[in-house]
Amino acid sequence: MVGEYLSRPLGELDLTTIMIDGIVFHDHTILIALGITAGAEKVVLGVREGSTENAGVASALLRDLIERGLPADKAILFAIDGGKGVRSAITKTFGVLAPVQRCQVHKLRNVLDHLPDHLK
């Protein structure tokens, strides 16, 4: 059932935003693409497993989404955690049609990680 869901056609979705983030489980990273439709519905689009959030894993995830009907000729906003590999894959795949927004939650976490405890 999960395999069917993650291989379903995506062409009918009216996506405005795609959020991509990785979750680490032991020595594996699961990269997840979550779409947000024009009606504000959140939809899991796809997942890919790799050792890190690198450009190769992100490119494979994006290729799969396009093969399943995600339009590559329509502007879609991407929200990411700031990883260079994911950003590179988005830019190479979609070019100027893919503005990238840094996730504010990840940015806040990164800033707080650099502050001394008494300033957090």
Structure overview:
Strands 3-2-1-4-5 form a 5-stranded mixed sheet. The chain contains 4 helices and 5 strands. The chain has helices spanning 2-5, 55-67, 84-94, 104-114, and strands spanning 15-25, 28-37, 42-50, 77-80, 100-102. It has 120 residues and is α/β, with parallel strands linked by helices. Helix 2 runs parallel beside helix 3.
Short description:
The chain is α/β, with parallel strands linked by helices.
Supply the key terms.
alpha/beta; 5-stranded mixed beta sheet; single chain; 5 strands; 31% strand
Topology at a glance:
Elements lengths: L1 H4 L9 E11 L2 E10 L4 E9 L4 H13 L9 E4 L3 H11 L5 E3 L1 H11 L6
Parallel strand pairs: 1-4, 4-5
Antiparallel strand pairs: 1-2, 2-3
Helix pairs in contact: 2-3
